[in-house]
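Lab meeting notes turned into a lecture example. A postdoc, R.K., suggested we walk through two folding results consecutively so the class can see how the record format repeats. The first protein's sequence and structure tokens come next.
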Amino acid sequence: MDSSRQSLKQFRKFLTQSLGALIWSFIALVPILLSGAAIERFLTYVVLFGLILRAPTLTGKLGKIKYLSESLVVLFCGGLLIFEKSSLASLAVRVVLVLFLLLAVIIYRRPSIRRIVVVNFAVLFCLSIPTEIGFRFFTNSQSSSQFQIVDIFRNSRPDGPAAWPVEFTTSSTNGLRTTTDQPASYSGRVLIFGGSTTFCADVPDFMTYPSILQRRLNDRGAKRRVENYGKSAATSTDRVIVLEGVKDLSKGDIVIFYIGVNEAGVGFTQRELPAGII
């Protein structure tokens, strides 16, 4: 009876340690996922790296070899640089990745340091969650107001184009980038969806191309109201979701998608990941 309890206890300990190694491996390899590795390969790397972390306790006498895990990590990183050559094209990314994985092994192999790191990470996570929820609750995601500070700072530099004489970006009551010169009465709308090239954060409201289009339509006597649904870094996947949320579309409305730049960026920098994740 005692032997069976002891075996069960050891089995539970083995499972707990293995699960901890997998979680630690997942965290350590997140840069691989962000660099563009396919999900299937990423999960394979997580399992392999987890085995490396557990190597000293799983290999019997081999586990007594000094720096066994660290040596295996070096071999593991060499394999990554071969199989993920296109994803890890930058030398800086490769160096940071190797150092990050070595640091992960060192921390994992030293329980005292690991506890400090885990506790601090948990505290940071717990503090960031309410902050994130607060920002999402009080900020309209369509207004893209966060770009005002960035662009005002950039344009206040001595080597920049200097500050504009008008407020840089404003948003309408429905949270969209303001389109100027909209008619008081109209028979239809023109809804323009796009990324930063549609949001036009680098110019005042009256110089965005939706505002210019609005003035052109006004000059032609077209009773159309132009609305700017642009947002920096947006993709077609993201904008389609926004379009589906527009419930007051009418038969006379025109929808324009000026999109593709960010999809191209996704194709180069986030291989094999759907645009919706970005």
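The second example is placed directly after the first for contrast:
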Amino acid sequence: MINKSLLYKDTTLHYRVAGTGKTVVLIHGFGELSDIWDQLIREFKDSFHLIIPELPGTGKTQLIEDMSMEGMAETIKAILDQEGVTRSIMVGHSMGGYITMAFAEKYPALLQAYCLFHSSAYADTEEKKATRRKGIQFIRDHGAFEFLKTATPNLFSPKTRDERPELIDRQIRGLSNFSADSLVSYYEAMIQRPDRREILKISKVPVLFLAGESDNAIPLADVLEQCHLPEKSYIDVLNQSGHMGMLEEPDECTEALKNFLTHQMD
């Protein structure tokens, strides 16, 4: 694993690379660090060239001026340019999937395939926007860590909460360094993002939908409504997972992604 960085406008972007072969970009979600992918990295580094960005506002990467999904997609493009990558497979978890969809809209020729991992092409509903605005107020009143400590358990399935509370505690302990400004910026970007179902409809590359049966953030019903839209799509449902399948069912996630990535080999 190699730690890398690049100057992007007035900000230094940080990312990691590992392995050789076809390029796979692993994009983390809201309130997560790039280490959320560590098991997948261990499994795939001998078969693929992995690029693992730290999104603006996460880890060592500072906020950028344009914190929209489109703005963050541009940081992924800058990293790919630095690495000399002209085609890749993207795997975006949650907000990372929203960024992937923004990238797919602007740079479709640079994608060989992509995966919406507990993610969606839908825009926020008015109810969801209201919930996020309440979250923004909570963050401003109580700070980022208090918000993440409160919100994170709800991302896991009831089974995980009952049987593996230590998994959730471990995840929460790693989230103490987020700033309130970062989380507010992410929420504002999610509120403003457009519906991108049309991008799925016109997709010329395969799309994998990886969904959790008990996912409250991205309900399975929403995923099932979208998965038929691309010309070529796959769906895997994680029966014991909420929104955090890479932690709740890591072996099943690894197998689903391995099958998908292998199908995209030239």
